[in-house]
Every structure is written in C-alpha cells, then in structure tokens.
Specification:
Order of helices and strands: HHEHEHEEHEHEHEHHE
Radius of gyration: 18 Å
Bound molecules: S-adenosylmethionine
Number of helices: 9
Structural class: alpha/beta
Number of strands: 8
CATH architecture: 3-Layer(aba) Sandwich
Oligomer: single chain
CATH class: Alpha Beta
CATH superfamily: Vaccinia Virus protein VP39
Helix content: 40-55%
Largest sheet: 8 strands, mixed
Number of domains: 1
Strand content: 15-25%
Distance between the termini: 32 Å
Length: about 250
C-alpha cells in the first residue's frame, strides 16, 4: 500500500476495497480482548486508519470515543460518511493528519491503535513518538510485517528487500519494545486468511479490471504488474511472513 501523497492511479487501483492492508475483525477483537475494558469516557486514536475497517470494529466492540487519522483525504471522507450512515458520528470522527506530527491537542488518550501503518514511520520511531500521546497506563496496539520463519527463500527475501527492507522477525521487534517505553501485554500473528479475504482477493479483482481499463497505459500496466507480483509472492511464500499484532502498555 503506498503512503503519503497517493498518485491518482494508485488511488484508483486501491479504491473500493474493504480494507487497505491485511487484517480481519476477529484479529482486531482478539487484540482488544487483551486490554482492560474501554468505557464511554475512554479516548482512542486510530492512526493510519485508511477507510476504517478496524475503526468500525473498535467502535462496534466498545463504547469509546475514537478519532481516526490518515493523511489520505478521500479515505477520511469515506470513513466519516460511513460513521454518519451507521449513526456512530457522535463518537467516531476521522481527520486528515500526518502520523509523524499528531496534533498534541488530541492527547492524552487511553489507547493508540494502528493496523498495518506504522511501517510509514518505522517501528521504533512510531512506538517512541506515540508513547507521548498516551495517558499513564495507556495502551498501544500495532500490527507490523514480520518474518514468521527462518531460512526465507531468496526470491521472497529479495521482494521484501525492495518493498520493505525494515521487516524483522518477531523476537527482534519484541527486544526493541522495552527501550521504547512499553511493557509487552501480548502478541500474535494475523492468520493467512486475513491476507486473502478482505484484501488480496478484492485487490486481485481490481488489478484485472484496472489492467483492462488501462490496456494502452504503460505506467498503469507497470503498476498493476507490481501489485500482481506482490500477490503472487504471497501465494507462494505466505508461510514465511505475516503481520504480528503487538499489544503494549505504557511502562
Ligand atoms: C496499509 S494501509 C492500512 C489502513 C488500515 N489501517 C487497514 O488496515 O485497512 C496504511 C495507511 O496508512 C496511511 N498513511 C501512510 N502514511 C501516513 C502518514 N504519514 N500519516 C498518516 N497516515 C498515513 C495510508 O494512507 C493508509 O491508509
């Protein structure tokens, strides 16, 4: 998923998806279940929210007030429209913002949540910066791409080296967490099914339709080929990597 200023072709290719990265509601709820219960006065920030797949899962499972942040305005508008349609707008609001410079007026919060987005800042940089947003005893839940097995095949390693060279294994990330100011409450990987159902399956359909629409546009076809390759790598090597959820408490 591209970050920052999303070029129009990217936006077109990634539009209309239920979510903008791997994940599922069951995993969101599983991570939530490791935390103390939220109340109607609890404040939550969902950073890198996209169109809000996990934001709505959080809003449905808790009575908390949620502010969702993303730097891509069309995602924010879609999220707010859905919140109004669901009757949740009184306690769920999305705002355009940069995860690297969250408005300090939004803090302190009881919970910072970020699924599949901390890569845009870097794992440790994100953990350190978002620690400052938490109330004492507050929690941070993030998911981050991690190696799940050693001896990664060369083709898979080369793909990730191009796309996200900062990928590490889970023990390496766990070792970094205390130095960023957190205690580890729990962690678990996303199941392989969460990459396919709400993400790669609809994205693959988008790739097919997008390639047909832009069959004379070399730039668009190159973009479609990049995404198709990502899906192909996942099909062949999905046991080697996934996203790991990290559930952390401010230490
Ligand atoms: C892989 S998507 C994940 C979206 C959503 N959390 C989900 O799981 O469906 C990453 C999101 O981070 C957003 N993003 C990237 N860089 C950002 C930044 N600097 N500030 C805020 N949001 C950013 C992107 O626009 C995108 O919506």
């Amino acid at each position: 998923m591209p970050d920052d200023q999303m070029p129009p072709l990217f936006f077109e290719l990634f539009s209309g998806l239920p979510r903008q990265g791997p994940g599922d509601d069951a995993s969101t709820r599983r991570a939530l279940g490791l935390l103390p219960a939220l109340t109607p006065t609890s404040r939550v920030l969902d950073i890198g929210c996209g169109t809000g797949a996990q934001t709505f899962a959080l809003a449905e499972a808790t009575p908390a007030h949620i502010v969702a942040i993303d730097n891509h305005a069309p995602f924010v508008e879609a999220l707010n429209a859905r919140a109004r349609a669901c009757g949740l707008a009184h306690r769920l609001e999305a705002r355009v913002g940069d995860m690297r410079a969250i408005d300090p007026a939004l803090a302190p919060v009881d919970l910072v949540w970020s699924e599949g987005a901390i890569y845009a800042m870097g794992f440790e940089a994100g953990l350190r910066a978002w620690r400052t947003l938490l109330a004492p005893g507050g929690h941070l839940v993030v998911s981050e791409a991690c190696w799940m097995r050693p001896a990664v095949p060369a083709e898979c390693a080369a793909f990730w080296d191009e796309e996200y060279p900062a990928i590490r294994d889970v023990p390496t990330q766990l070792a970094r967490i205390p130095g960023c100011g957190y205690d580890i409450v729990g962690h678990f990987p996303l199941p392989a099914s969460s990459w396919w159902g709400d993400y790669y399956a609809p994205l693959e359909q988008n790739v097919i339709a997008f390639s047909a629409r832009h069959r004379d546009n070399a730039e668009a076809l190159a973009l479609a080929a990049t995404v198709a390759r990502e899906i192909d790598i996942w099909r062949r090597y999905s046991s080697y990597y996934s996203y790991e959820f990290f559930v952390l408490r401010a230490g």
